[in-house]
Design brief:
Distance between the termini of chain A: 13 Å
CATH class of chain A: Alpha Beta
Number of helices of chain A: 3
Order of helices and strands of chain A: EEHHHEEEE
CATH superfamily of chain A: Hotdog Thioesterase
Helix content of chain A: 10-25%
Structural class of chain A: alpha+beta
CATH architecture of the domain at 9-16 and 53-134 in chain B: Roll
CATH superfamily of the domain at 9-16 and 53-134 in chain B: Hotdog Thioesterase
CATH topology of chain A: Thiol Ester Dehydrase, Chain A
Mean pLDDT of chain B: 96
Oligomer: heterodimer
Number of strands of chain B: 6
Low-confidence stretches of chain B: none
Low-confidence stretches of chain A: none
Chain lengths: ~150, ~140
């Protein structure tokens, strides 16, 4: 069965926040082999005009994937999570994420589309700082191979 | 200084994506999906072997751009399509993923579009991988 189109436009407010630490940024930079000093050294970050160390562009995945997964796991949506693959991902930044940010994500289902027996979901997340400042907007397209119309 | 002229090629990057790297990335990114570290699980769901995190490939592609910029904070937009998995066998060689990028467009608003290519086994693993950066 195709997914319920009435979920388009549904928005899920943040249920928790995530505090970004210098150590987590360094751990993430290490994991992607990135030695850029602005991710590790406060002096280098300040010299580049940032108040503290910043995070690599895709760092937000640390909070984005769990937030998106929580929404798509809503039983009312009826999605078979085990058949889901990541089709597309985008990040649009108002500013870099930096150490000390307390992130809150608001997730919205932008689109649900049925094409050739597969479901395509477009899920957007707005990532805000504690004072409400928009830091980043993420968008993921998730593809679910339904396999019920082979 | 980065040279923002259409056609400028950024320094390429080659990465041997190994199981070790996938475990480390799983921990750092908090993505513990077993298709990225458990070959029994991966094969049970029809994959040839463990596959790399798409988001790791995306992160490595981003490095090509941020390594080239004066400040990674100049990157203001980054998007990719995941077209093929990176199959990561056991062993030190892992899977060789080759990244290249060039300046695709310089815009009136002080930004430039960087087009990124990621290849594994001779085939593109990212589609329409593009980053928008502030020129200064």
């Amino acid at each position: 069965m195709a997914l319920d189109q009435s979920f388009i436009g549904r928005s899920y407010p943040p249920t928790s926040t995530y505090e970004v630490s210098r150590e987590k940024i360094r751990e993430f930079a290490d994991a992607i082999g990135d030695t850029n000093p602005v991710y590790r050294d406060q002096e280098a970050a300040r010299a580049a005009g940032h108040p503290d160390v910043i995070a690599p562009p895709t760092f937000i995945t640390v909070v984005n994937i769990p937030a998106v997964n929580k929404v798509v796991a809503d039983p009312a949506l009826g999605l078979d999570y085990s058949r889901m693959v990541h089709g597309l991902q985008s990040f649009t930044y108002a500013r870099p994420v930096r150490a000390g940010d307390v992130l809150a994500l608001t997730v919205t289902i932008d689109d649900i589309m049925d094409r050739a027996g597969n479901d395509f979901l477009t899920v957007r997340a707005e990532v805000n700082a504690a004072d409400g400042e928009l830091i980043c907007t993420t968008s993921a397209q998730l593809v679910v191979r339904r396999g019920d119309e082979a | 200084m980065s040279n923002f002229e259409v056609g400028t090629e950024l320094p390429p990057l080659q990465v041997h994506v190994t199981r070790d790297m996938l475990v480390r990335y799983a921990g750092a990114s908090l993505d513990f999906n077993p298709i990225h570290w458990n070959e029994h699980f991966a094969k049970d769901v029809g994959l040839p072997d463990v596959i790399g995190h798409g988001m790791l490939t995306m992160a490595l592609g981003g490095r090509v751009v941020t390594d080239w910029l004066d400040d990674p904070g100049q990157l203001i937009d980054y998007s990719v399509r995941f077209t093929r998995p990176v199959v990561v066998p056991y062993g030190d060689e892992g899977a060789l993923v080759e990244f290249s990028a060039k300046v695709g467009q310089v815009r009136e608003d002080g930004t430039a579009r960087i087009d990124i290519v990621a290849k594994f086994d001779g085939k593109a693993v990212l589609g329409k991988a593009q980053s928008v950066v502030r020129v200064s």
